[in-house]
Amino acid sequence: STMLEVSGLGHRYGGPTGHQAINELSFRVEAGELACIVGPSGCGKSTLLRSISGLLTPTSGRVELHGDPVEGVPSDLAVVFQDYSRSLFPWLSVRKNVEFPLRSRGIGRDERRRRSDEVLEWVGLAESARKYPWQLSGGMQQRVSIARALACRPALLLMDEPFASVDAQTRFELEDLLLRVRKQFDSTVLLVTHDIDESIYLADRVFVLSKSPASIVADIPVDLGER
Ligand code: ADP
Ligand code: ADP
């Protein structure tokens, strides 16, 4: 079934005479797929993700999540950003960071604890639950961000250049981590990157964007077999 359907999506910054960042974008992501959006720097990838997540209101077109129009910021959607250092709360422990969005969703204490134990185990941070973000390496902080997103059991996980701020070795570890956890949690993932190698390694499907205002110039199914 279709998880995400984007139709004729456009966003113009700064009113009618402003800058058209994306234009007439249409594509769909099936449930259980890991899709990558790849395109040059400045082509509108972040604008696209922010329009899908409801952080930006599109100026044309529409976004549907399992058949329902997206209005505001849907609670069955989670986002992982490139800048992990600004996305974690420094005054909360790793566990409390992971549980934070569960609190806002009204999930009770026992269930929060159960879910944070589960996802921290899966990202290899069970031993670090009581630590604070500043006590962790950049790669470990990004693992916390991924754990926090997965704990919400999102219908769709959006990732904006999630591995662009870590060193190459850590990036490989995190890419493999993503491939493992998305199987474990049967997640649907839409990840944007400027790195074509990364997109081919990770994705079941790669959408290639043109330079700004972005439109889809290729839609490539990828099958690398077992990884
Ligand atoms: P990418 O993520 O692919 O690097 P962005 O979505 O960040 O691209 O930006 C796409 C285009 O929109 C760029 O030309 C950028 O300069 C412009 N842009 C991004 N954010 C804003 C903004 N808040 N106001 C005006 N223009 C913006
Ligand atoms: P629990 O019931 O899971 O033990 P607590 O009520 O003890 O959680 O809160 C744990 C920490 O989470 C507190 O130290 C508090 O600083 C932080 N916290 C809780 N809610 C918020 C919030 N809305 N904004 C910022 N921090 C919060």
Automatic annotation (TrEMBL):
<keyword id="KW-0813">Transport</keyword>
<keyword id="KW-0547">Nucleotide-binding</keyword>
<feature type="domain" description="ABC transporter">
    <location>
        <begin position="4"/>
        <end position="227"/>
    </location>
</feature>
<protein>
    <submittedName>
        <fullName>ABC transporter ATP-binding protein</fullName>
    </submittedName>
</protein>
<keyword id="KW-0067">ATP-binding</keyword>
<dbReference type="GO" id="GO:0005524">
    <property type="term" value="F:ATP binding"/>
</dbReference>
